[in-house]
Each structure stands twice: as C-alpha cells, then as structure tokens.
Amino acid sequence: MKLDHLAIFLAFLYLQCYVWADSSSEEDSSSDEDQNEALLVEDPEFDLLIFTQRWPITACYEWREKSPDHICGLPSAQNIWTIHGIWPTKLNTIGPSFCNKTAVFNVTELDPIEKQLEQFWINVEKNKPYDSLWRHEWLKHGTCAAAVMVQLNTEDKYFGQGLTWLQQHSMADVLGEGGIKPGQNYTVLEIRQVLIDRLQKNMAIECYHDKETKQQFLNEIRVCFNKNLELENCDGILFEDVFIDQPQGKIITNCNVNKPVFYPATVPLSRYEKTHMSPFDLHTKFLEEYKRQKAKENKNMKILVNIYKLIQLLKWSTM
Questions:
Q1: Which InterPro entries does the record cross-reference, listed alphabetically (predicted)?
Q2: Which of 120, 159, 117, 153 is nearest to 137 (CA)?
Q3: Could you say which DSSP state residue 269 is in?
Q4: Which segments of the chain does DSSP mark as H helices, in order?
Q5: Spatial distance between the Cα atoms of 249 and 192, rounded to a whole number of angstroms
C-alpha cells in the first residue's frame, strides 16, 4: 500500500514540474497577476502615494502593438491625460499591494462619479471589461491606501481623489503651459524642467520603447504625494534613476536621455497595420495558432499517458 502511495506521489510531482515549466512560457495576463500577487501577505504601511497619469495616445499604441485584435477606448475629449492609478509605495521598494484579501470591488459604489471616470480614468484596453482597470487598481492599490488613510478608505474616496488631483495637476495643462505640445519630439531634460518649473517637485517620467522602430514615446508621468495629500518629491521610489549633473539633482526615468522623446498627437500605425495583413494572411495566422494549440494538447495527452504507464509499472513492481 505504501508503495502505491509512493507511485502516485511521484507521478504527481512529475505532473507538477511539467505544468510549472509549461506555464512559465506563457505570457502573463492581468488576471493571472492579480491572482498570484493576491496570495502574498502585505504590510499596508507606505511612505508615498504615486499618482500616475498616462498619455492615452501612447497607451493605445502600446496596447495595439501586442495583438492585431486589440482595440482602444479613448476619451472623447482631445489632448487630455488620463489616470492610471494611485499607488501606495514604500521608498526603495515596490508595493505594498493587495492588502485586503477579502475585499471585493463594487462598481455601483462609483455611480456618483462613474461618468467622470469613464472619461478621465478610462480603460484604454477596450477588449477588456469596461470596469476592469478600476477593479484592478482598487484591489491591488486601493485596499492598501484604505488600510492606512481615512481619506481614501472607500472606493468613492479613492477614485474621487484621483479625479481631484487630475483637475489640479493635469499633465495636459502642466506640459502645455510649458510649451510641450503633442506631435513633437523633446528631450527628457526639457520635459523634466517644465515639470519642476510648474510643480516644484521631482517626478518620474516613463517612456514606451518601440522595439521595432527603436523610437521612445512619452507614456506616463508619476506625481508623488505624502499622506497629507500634499505634493512631494518622488526621490526614492523604485524606478530607473539616471543621474545628471544639474543643481536639481537626478532625473527619475526609464527614458534614454540621449534620444528624443516623441509626444504623439495621434495613435501611430501598429506593426500589424503597417504590414497590411490581408484576410488570407489573417486566416493563415489563425491556422498556425490553431495548430500550435493542438500540438500543445497532444503533448499534454502524451504526458498524461506516460504518467498512467508509470503508475501501472510501479504498481506491477510491488505485486
């Protein structure tokens, strides 16, 4: 009997190793990320709140570059920056996140401000449910803010604060007043100087890097606040720091400071649109994907058959 149990246990380990190796090759999805990170136990304490604004034109381009099936949801008003999230953050590390394992997202709590959120906290990735970004941001980041700050301890307060900050510190206004307009190239130093001149704080500048064209696009700007909801320097947040010889200190960015940063006025053509794939090409691509999936299923079946044979062999050897 003990050997029977050993056989089953060995087979189980074999299957687990295969599943782990196979799953590691798959592309991560936001739902997988939520499920995996939600298993972690987090201390909700933090030092700063990172208020991240995104340029929806670049966000859309990045989304469409990932698949020919991806479509974008863009705000109806032009030249507005939208909200990505409010992220409680410990200095020199990432997180906390998912601080309340029993929390649920109730979109009806946002009824009073939902119309504003649809415009200014829009989910650019339109293939996903319209409230999926709000759900993700609340469960991952909002629960940590709510655990520490009364000012942000409900969905309505958390998302409402984002709308307030956007109205006060919209990057469309901040950059526009400094002469940074869509449709042009700028240096990282030019963008940073405008931010410092207008807000008197050091912020993080995030670029999207196009692997095909080697071009970099202005994507996000991260503004930091303390727990009194006052503007604060972002120095110390975990991001790629590029040190420069200036009185203001360092620039916080993942952009290449030696290359121009394009601030697009319209969504560039994706690599799929550039290739002008015909219906025949799309059909061929579908068939290739189908064959790949079938090959994977056949491989899984062979693994299961081998496991079954292993169990039978081990049982026979104990008779």
A1: Ribonuclease_T2_eukaryotic, RNase_T2-like, RNase_T2-like_sf, RNase_T2_His_AS_2
A2: 159
A3: P
A4: 2-23, 30-37, 56-66, 114-120, 132-137, 143-148, 155-169, 171-177, 188-199, 271-275, 279-317
A5: 11
Contacts by residues 265-271 (CB-CB < 8 Å, ≥ 24 positions apart): 265/57, 265/182, 265/183, 266/57, 267/57, 267/60, 267/61, 267/64, 267/72, 267/74, 268/61, 270/61, 270/64, 270/65, 270/68, 271/65, 271/212
3-state DSSP assignment of residue 124? coil
Tokens 């526009």 locate to 176
Contact 124, 56 (CB under 8 A): yes
Residues 6+ apart with CB under 8 A from 219: 54, 55, 58, 59, 62, 206, 207, 208
Q: Which residues contact 316 (CB under 8 A, 6 or more apart)?
A: none
pLDDT means per 10 residues, the chain with 319 residues, are 49 45 39 47 86 97 93 91 97 93 96 97 94 97 97 98 98 97 96 96 96 94 98 88 67 94 93 67 61 73 77 72
Q: pTM (2 decimals)?
A: 0.74
